Amino acid sequence: MDGILALCHFCETHGPCVILCTQRSKEEPLQTPHTLTVTWCEACQSVDLSQALVSRDNKTTYVTTRTPQQQDLAFLLKQAAVRSLSCEEETSKEGGTLYFGDNERGHVISHTFTLRDSLARGFYRKYSIIMLMKDKIHLLNSWPMLADVINGAEQAQRPQRAVRQAQGSPRNTARSLSQLTGQPAVFGHIHLWFTWMLSCETVIEKPNAGLPLPPFRSPFTLRKFANEWDEVVFQVACFCTVTGYRLEIDDFLVKDAFQVLLPSNFTPFHNAPVCILKNEDRWVVEWGGQLPPRLPTLITVAEKGLKNENLPDAALVPYINGLVLKWLHIAQSIYWSKSNNNSQLLQTLGVQSHDMPLINYWLTQLSLNK
User: Fold this and answer.
1) Where is the signal peptide (predicted)?
2) Model's pTM, two decimal places?
3) In the sheet that 282-286 helps form, which strands lie side by side, from edge to edge?
4) Under a CB-based contact definition with an 8 Å cutoff, are residues 330 and 342 in contact?
5) What are phi and psi of 360, to 5 degrees?
6) Residue among 315, 306, 295, 312 nearest 356 (CA)
7) What are the tens digits of pLDDT across the range 205-245?
8) Are 14 and 40 a contacting pair, CB within 8 Å?
9) Nearest to 109 by CA among 199, 197, 10, 17
């Protein structure tokens, strides 16, 4: 996984700061990569600027340092730490996981948590674990794994006010993470944990087995029908086409015009009822079915574009082809998930109940043409 993982802390003296970070590297750093000045106290201490924790596998080196090896990346990580621990955070005291970012400053998944400390203000210290990446899609696809793995360190449930009274008032109230957790090697454990997370491949790229649209498929004839035919006749022909019913039309050019609404190589269901279009001075339809109260979104949007006088013919071609390609990709995403009953996935893709006749037919065609 490409990106950088960092542990951040809201220091009572220095404010939000990066304690340490782990990133991939082609080779082990030989010296301090930059001259960045970092102020620190006992609470925000981890590894020295001149030190690094290094792990290696067959191809990659994973390096944990106090600051990133690139100075420009150190600036972006500092900004992310400030946002993570101040303005971009969950409202609950216990913290939580959220996303923020943009293309200029990078995309960030941040998990904030607190550790109890009898010497701190409010009896707790605030930390966050952040992942900074340039690729938003890759980062968000990594969210489930990161959200499941990242958890705040557990501490004993002890009344911190009573602990403070028992300790008195020491001069130095700052305490490091290793002191709070009682683990002297906590930063070594964090390095190994971050290394494991960066070595995980959380995104599996699926090969594009999509069915390409014909390069010269024109919707101009369909536009003529949309404006001249009776609205119900036109909508029945469109509905039967995109949901797998068989169209019987004597005129091949008319039948071919409606194929614009389908990807190539789609064939009707063999046992589906027949929809017959006849030209009797005007076009009429004979079909034993009935149009649903709401048509599939593809038909509604396509009909709107076809009847839009302000949409020129030159723009109509990419309009219709792009619309069909969009719903083909939606159907492919559902097909890859191996479930068309995943309500959360359907909602995310914008699929509603009136779109399901189209989706079910297209999923069948994708399985036949895989």
Assistant:
1) none
2) 0.51
3) 246-249, 274-280, 282-286
4) no
5) -60, -40
6) 295
7) 555 555 455 455 788 999 999 999 999 999 999 999 999 99
8) yes
9) 197
Mean pLDDT, the chain, rounded, equals 80
Residues in the chain: 370
Rounded Cα distance between 144 and 336, Å, is: 18
Dist CA 356 CA 350 (whole Å) = 11
Distance CA 86, CA 84 (A): 6
- Two tokens, residue 243: 């949901």
How many contiguous H segments (helices) and E segments (strands) does the chain have? 13, 10
d(CA 33, CA 42): 24
- Tokens representing 119 are 């010497």
Strand order in the sheet with 124-133: 53-56, 61-65, 15-25, 4-11, 124-133, 106-116, 97-102
CB 1 within 8 A of CB 201: yes
- Cα torsion through 85, 87, 92, 95, rounded to 10: -30
